[in-house]
Design a protein that fits this description.
Arc Repressor Mutant, subunit A, about 400 residues, 3 domains, five-stranded mixed sheet, alpha/beta, Nucleotidyltransferase, domain 5
Length: about 400
């Protein structure tokens, strides 16, 4: 229940919850008057006024100049400030490391990418570049008089274990790698308690659904350096017992198919991954130094341009992509399927193949139909999802938010 008490900075679970309600509203809706926050959250106006005062005095919120209201009364709108806080997401991809530094409100402060040379099977040179990129971003935050409150390392690979580690990265030839430990050895000034390691897929799924204003139940599938996916139930990504739920690249859809690096046969990645697509298109094998993302970008461009061999290769793969989605859709009953990564540009062909074999109750025009949508964030989806998740963690912990902004 809302609390009208205003004693202390954060006094108890109810007060923390109410502070979070105010902050969350301002992030989701934007600058708002106290009366508008009250109406939207159910908090009393007196409670909102008291909570806002705490956050304004702590520098978390600022007040805009009064403007005319609907009844002629001036409205003073509150907006998110937290002028000292920054959030850092760093994506470790198959060919480069990219840093994105943003404000709590999502404004971009700094972005940089650096190639790591893709030394297959050797994580140390890659972690060296990761350390350099993080140090540079840390310096950029200091130059902007910001304190980094959260560092999320995003990897295009499955993550698991305690402490969390990369479980294996096919695109880099890695087995299990402790990325966080490697980063902390290279940047010892980095506070360990603010560093986390996440797989890009759940983050990308959440960010894409948010950008598309889609809520509820969904399936996300992404084709980039690898093939991955996520299941979203009631707005939350399903992680599974081992954090591997939704691993659609390793859904064994082709009976007696090719062996996969995961140990199974006939996985979707063996027919729709970039190496399989280039092989089907009759191309020479992709050089080991070439970025899988760049290779896929070139392949997609060929498909869109009507290149006969690329189109034929894609048509062979898209039937299996659709089959995988049909199986997942039958099991999870999503409202939408979102196509991410480089495959987003080919969403129409995926949607057509998906709809070609749907049960009548879920066919086009049915109240139970599943829409297939193209993602809009591209390679930024994982980074955006990381900073949004970091923001939400801070908003849920006002005391930590205020501490970092002091």
């Amino acid at each position: 229940m809302p609390s009208d008490g205003a004693t202390g900075l954060v006094s108890g679970d109810v007060r923390r919850h109410n502070l979070s309600l105010v902050l969350d509203h301002l992030v989701r809706v934007g600058p708002s008057a106290r009366s508008e926050i009250s109406d939207a959250t159910g908090l009393t106006r007196g409670s909102v006024t008291a909570l806002a005062q705490v956050l304004v005095e702590a520098g978390i919120l600022s007040q805009a100049s009064p403007v005319g209201g609907s009844k002629g009364r001036p409205l003073t709108r509150l907006t998110l400030a937290a002028d000292r806080i920054a959030l850092l997401a760093v994506q470790l991809a198959a060919d480069e490391v990219t840093a994105l530094l943003v404000t709590l409100a999502g404004e971009e402060l700094y972005r940089a990418s650096r190639p790591h040379g893709r030394p297959m099977g050797d994580p140390e040179p890659v972690l060296d570049v990761l350390g350099d990129v993080v140090r540079d971003a840390w310096g950029a935050a200091a130059a902007a008089d910001r304190r980094i409150a959260d560092v999320t390392i995003v990897v295009l690979a499955p993550v698991g274990g305690r402490p969390p580690r990369v479980l294996g990265d096919i695109a880099l030839g890695w087995d299990e790698v402790d990325v966080i430990a490697g980063l902390l050895r290279r940047v010892p000034a980095l506070p360990p308690e603010i560093v986390r390691l996440e797989s890009d897929i759940p983050l990308a799924a959440t960010a894409e659904l948010g950008a598309l204003k889609s809520t509820g139940d969904a399936v996300f599938i992404k084709g980039d350096s690898n093939v991955g996916g996520a299941l979203v139930v009631r707005g939350r990504v399903v992680r599974g017992a081992h954090g591997l739920a939704g691993s659609m690249g390793h859904l064994p859809v082709v009976p007696d198919g090719r062996p996969c690096a995961c140990g199974q046969h006939g996985c979707l990645v063996t027919i729709a991954g970039i190496d399989a697509l280039l092989d089907a298109a009759g191309d020479d094998p992709r050089p080991m130094h070439e970025s899988p993302s760049a290779a896929l970008e070139g392949f997609v461009a060929r498909v869109l341009a009507g290149d006969d061999r690329a189109v034929a290769a894609w048509e062979g793969a898209v039937a299996w992509i659709a089959r995988a989605l049909q199986i997942i859709a039958a099991a999870s009953d999503p409202r939408v399927v979102v196509i991410g990564g480089h495959w987003a540009a080919l969403t129409t062909s995926i949607a057509d193949a998906f709809q070609a074999n749907r049960p009548l109750i879920a066919g086009p025009g049915s109240a139970f139909a599943t829409s297939v949508l193209a993602g809009v964030l591209g390679a930024d989806a994982g980074l955006r999802g990381a900073v949004e998740a970091a923001r939400d963690r801070l908003l849920a912990d006002p005391a930590t938010l205020i501490k970092f902004n002091a």
